[in-house]
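Progress against Task 2.4 (sequence-to-structure conversion) is shown through the following example record, which the project officer requested during the mid-term review.
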Amino acid sequence: MHWKLTATAAGLAMLASSGLANAAGELNIYNWGNYTSPEMIKKFEEAFDVKVTLTDYDSNDTALAKVRQGGHGFDIVVPSASVIPIWIREDLLLETNPNQMENFKNVAERWKDVPFDPGRKYTVPWQWGTVGLSVNTADYKGDINTSAIFLDPPAELEGKINVIPEMADVMHLAITYMGGEPCTADKAILKQVRDKLLEAKPKWISMNYGNIEAMTKRDFLATVNWNGASLRMREQDPNIKYGYPKEGYPIWMDNVAVLKDAKNVENAKLFMNFIMDPQNAAMISDFAKYANGIDGSEEFMPASMADAPEIVVPEELQAAGTFALTCPEEARNLYTAIWTELQK
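Structure tokens generated for the chain above:
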């Protein structure tokens, strides 16, 4: 399933017209690291007299495992589309019906009724983008639009390659590189994928989440990466370029949801409505450098994002992108077995 990468723009709606009541107190957010605009959080705190506490995680698996254990104290979590059906099936999310909130009218049409949350009963858009490769082109002059960068590393990059610890993204890249379809359970293909990953791993330096500083300091010369993080790297070092693997790459969306055992439900609902305001969504994008799925937000975003190569996919590579949905359980179990072996 291919979802074309497009940008949309339509009207502006301000939070003042949300119709939701003020609610003093607390809000505990569990989100990916280095991904939340401090300026936006401050604005929310001042608008509603709510103290926000932010806790970071480094992968969808980490977040899911933590919440499954209970006793976490979080109100909000920000899972990727590919795992949201698991959160819903395990009854971990509260049905908050954001589709009835005042600012839902600002959600771009393509993101209003989505297969991972039909009718948007549980989630609202946070940010969306792609997974590819960030490469320091001062050190490597070859093709960067290929997963060979980390699966068959060129000599110039060996020992200086990082891979993000996100199973679904890395497996998607590896499977398509070996000629398979995303979410395949074909054991012949997956044996090739396993062998290729295990063969490549000794040529990597690490499997870390936070890699902006390491790339800009040249501790890493290449990393599997998300497009917004790569844009932030390029802003510090113009030699760092973002490649879209021609063999195939995931398109993803992260989404805000309220946890079933949240203690501050009304404040969490206020936050959901708040981030669907175009000006506030733009603050999120301005910080992390991803598209956000809210119409009208482009008006408030840096002009440099409008034509950034990390956001505007080259026409000839658009067809290689596939929106990442939840894989069947059989496939997920096989991927987990490969991933577990890779961690050893």
